Amino acid sequence: MPTISTTYKGDLRCESTHIKSGNVLLTDAPTDNNGKGEAFSPTDTLAAALGTCMVTIMGIKARDLSVSIDGTAIDVTKIMEQNPRRVGEVVIEINVANSTLDDKQKQLLESAALNCPVAKSVHPNLIQTVRFNYP
User: Fold this and answer.
1) What is the pLDDT of residue 98?
2) Annotation: CATH topology of 43-133
């Protein structure tokens, strides 16, 4: 059974539905590639998937360690390349919201993030620049 159902709506817009939850995600082509830029572009979703996967896996590790990272915020910057057009680099800044973590806990959380499934699934030529910031 599929995980996602996508319909091309026309005018460079797609509507994807997560089958299990019914949540809907719209994508538009970006303005620099003939689109309106009124929603996430497909490459935006790639960058968002990388960032959210990292912090989700950190959340699992934090739970295992009996610590909280609730409120952790991430900023994701996608850098495009040309010829061929592709995402060349994703810069992820992870602002961890816990000032009581010791060095070992930080190392375990960072390792979890850097080894998340999306990070290990994208092409090895994609540069993943990740910075961890602690209060």
Assistant:
1) 87
2) GMP Synthetase; Chain A, domain 3 (3.30.300)
